[in-house]
Amino acid sequence: MKNFLRSGNPYIWLTGGTLTACLLMISGLVVLIMINGFGIFWPRKIVQFTLQDGTVILGEVAKRESVPHQKDAYRTKVKVGNRDVYGMDFRWIDNAEIVSQTYPVHALTFERREWGNLYGFLHGLRLDGGVKPLETESMASLLGESHALYKKIRYIEKKEIGNINYRMEKIRLELKRLTLLQPSEKIQKRAAALNTKIEHLEKIYREKEDTLAGFYVKAREKEVVVLLADGREKMVPVFQIVRISMPNEMGVFAKMRFYISKFWEFIWGEPREANTEGGVFPAIFGTVMMVLIMSIAVVPLGVLTAVYLKEYAGDSFISRLVRISVSNLAGVPSIVFGVFGLGFFIYFFGGGIDKLFFSESLPAPTYGTGGILWAALTLSLLTVPVVVVATEEGLSSVPKALREASYALGATKIETLWKVVIPQATPGILTGTILAMARAAGEVAPLMITGVVKLAPSLPIDSHFPYIHLERKFMHLGFHIYDVGFQSPNVEAAIPMVYTTTLVLLFTVLTLNLTAIVVRNKLKKWYNTGAM
Fold first, then answer.
1. Count of Cβ atoms closer than 10 Å to residue 455 Cβ
2. Three-state DSSP state, 66
3. Are the C-beta atoms of 288 and 478 separated by less than 8 Å?
4. How many whole angstroms separate alpha carbon 138 and alpha carbon 135?
5. Element (H, E) at 91
6. What does pTM read for this prediction?
7. Contact at 8 Å (CB) between 234 and 240?
8. Which of 133-137, 158-162, 243-247, 337-341 has the lowest mean pLDDT?
């Protein structure tokens, strides 16, 4: 037995078994997320249940399970939708109460901009106080007109009126700045010119408002009459309908087209319905942008620290103290970094910038509030230990012969570092960057107090100088998962969205890491070839 233990084989099997168990758990988690995440967009059949008391229920079967503490008793969870009518999205039915279960051919799913899905039968189009018969095929042209009108309204609201508001705010701040200066004839003329511009912009603003009001009146003109399962009629404005589907008549290819359409909307669309419907593109954009800014900030800071510790500091008391401090930073809770970022970056730096350059905007802060820049810098401090340790390892791996050869050719220490050592250590530096990106992309706690918000559909990039607005708040996939899963007013209906958003976050982190790994491997191959 002693010889068997000394051989090391049990420990090899133990480590191999542990690795296998870890891989199985990770794979199981990913598979669970994929199954629940990818299935959300697949159209499910609409089922009509008739109960013993005569109640008729129409909706999608979400789950079937056994009734706890009852033998041979089962119940069905039905997504009945119609939240504005019934006040709930789901309803449990005891299978013993079901008299019949059918799949109506003409049952429709109305996906709306508000109040979620509506399940029912198309009865007609309300016009001039009456109801005109309407075929499902005719709804396509009505939806096309409605979507075109929606795009016009959004363009006027976000682009035209948004630009007018931006220009008026700039003029208002300039007027406020002029009032802080010593009065003079030149300043009075400038103020009069600015007031004239404001009057002109206000006139244009009122014209756009009138145009917008006309569009909204037009949007309320057409309403479809939907017959619900219980016989009631529900009026739905065509403008509020995103799409209409007939899942009970769909074939495989029709369902695949529907799936691709929904998936495309999820990736590139804006969120709606308290983030439980629509897309997550603003959150994807915010996550990627924050990680890139964080990487730009953390790499120079971490590399310079590692170079000093490895190449200049030596084995002194101070260098050992710094290394211990860096190691301890890796164990500090992330929320502590968030509090530091709030006090140091936002209140100190941001508040100072506002006093120096944006005094006319005070007391409303510009940089003295949470934003994507401060969140990225906070996470850069959080991930500095990872980059420092990886860079030191990379510097240690550079052969001593290369340094000596450089010195023999007459290069100075800084030239050797810049042209020989650091290029050879670049793969190690990129390894630290990859680890830092992976950790930063999933952090949520520091972001909650340094700039992330529940809803920010407008991206921090627009046509106004300086074009990239790092002071703005942003959305993040990690916080989006937390908000939808735990803060949503309709958590039960939002559960599928949690899995799908988690899948997008995993894919985003994987894409960022793979990109960095490819770059690292190419650089490693390049320097190895150059060394030969």
1. 16
2. strand
3. no
4. 5
5. strand 90-94
6. 0.89
7. no
8. 133-137
